[in-house]
Design goal:
This is GB1/RHD3-type G domain-containing protein. It comes from Nesidiocoris tenuis. The chain is of the alpha/beta class. The protein has nine helices and twelve strands. The longest helix has 17 residues. The relative contact order is 0.18. The structure holds guanosine-5'-diphosphate (GDP). Guanosine-5'-diphosphate binds next to helix 2 and helix 7.
């Protein structure tokens, strides 16, 4: 189980707009001989504070703990009804606000038919517009997590709003500055994840409804202000793939009961069903996206090299 593992800071911000890579811990983690030469898949969840990112990631962890490696009980990964949810610390109502990237200290090895054994890394990226950090700081953190991830899950509350697209465009710009001009799209897969979607009669929960909403939101129209058209073009031109998934509300216990410990019995059944669907979409061996840079597969060891390069660029 995951109990002796934790989220380790990948980057710290020791001074205004200074970024420092947690090299010692990362070397210990990424250069282990069982994983260093394997292709890597990095799944990141990013977005504003207190919107259920860590909560979601802990279900990703549950899946990885049960389904990858040598586990035998294949269908019960989601857990028992009363089991508390552990992993990345999640909590409601507290004033915690960290800007940074946490990497889960356990790396998973998943056997895939396309890429053989793949090292799967989960990261939690916090801090968009938390009022504590500067725009440059959070934009940098988001850019770095987007550059190193094979799937960036952009966690949003209730809808895809115009300012969500603007925030995205801002950190994309930072990321682009750090990428060499190769003519290739700088980032891989972006998944808009809309939490507490409340218009299922307009677009149903899940990936199909998500696709419909995304098409609507990213459409450029002649009567739109040119700036809005440019934001949309920019976003589309930066990612190889963009998807969207609509999640239902998880129920009042999850959203507002301070005693809630994450147990499934207190989570709305529709949410649970969609959670399984989402995790299958991102994490089953056939769906795992391996990290590539300029088309080349990146290994766990290469990831460290890229991180060093990116952090140096942002500090210069
Ligand atoms: P993070 O700061 O984005 O990582 O948010 P957390 O994962 O720490 O969760 C913050 C609070 O939101 C906790 O009280 C969770 O129980 C609650 N929560 C988790 N998922 C959802 C969701 O989908 N909708 C709502 N409304 N609350 C959620």
């Amino acid at each position: 189980m995951a109990d002796h593992h934790s989220g380790i800071p990948l980057i710290s911000i020791p001074g205004p707009n200074k970024f420092s890579l947690n090299e010692t811990a990362l070397e210990r983690l990424l250069l282990r001989k069982e994983v260093k030469d394997l292709p890597v898949a990095v799944i990141s969840v990013a977005g504003a504070f207190n919107k259920g990112k860590s909560f979601l990631l802990d279900f990703f962890l549950r899946y990885a703990n049960h389904q990858y490696g040598e586990a035998v009980e294949r269908d019960i990964w989601i857990g028992n009804d009363g089991e508390p949810l552990i992993g990345f610390p999640w909590s409601g109502g507290s004033s915690r606000s960290t800007t940074g990237i946490l990497i889960w200290s356990k790396l998973f090895v998943c056997t895939t038919s396309k890429n053989g054994n793949v090292c799967v890394i989960l990261i939690d990226t916090q801090g968009i517009f938390d009022g504590e950090s500067t725009v440059q700081e959070w934009a940098t953190v988001f850019a770095i997590s987007t550059m190193i991830s094979s799937v960036q899950i952009y966690n949003l509350s209730q809808n895809i709003q115009e300012d969500d697209l603007q925030h995205l465009e801002l950190f994309i710009e930072y990321g682009r500055l750090a990428q060499s001009k190769t003519g290739r799209k700088p980032f891989q897969k972006l998944l808009f994840l809309v939490r507490d979607w409340s218009y299922p009669y307009e677009h149903g929960y899940g990936a199909i409804g998500g696709k419909e909403l995304l098409e609507k939101r990213l459409k450029t129209k002649d009567d739109q202000h040119v700036e809005l058209q440019n934001i949309r073009r920019n976003i589309k031109s930066c990612f190889e793939q963009i998807d969207c998934f609509l999640m239902p509300h998880p129920g009042l216990k999850v959203a507002s009961d301070p005693m809630f410990n994450g147990s499934l019995a207190d989570i709305d059944p529709i949410f649970r069903a969609k959670l399984k669907e989402l995790i299958r979409l991102v994490m089953t061996p056939a769906n795992l996206v391996v990290k590539r840079v300029h088309g080349e597969v990146v290994t766990t060891k290469d990831l460290l090299t890229y991180l060093k390069k990116y952090v140096a660029v942002f500090n210069s």
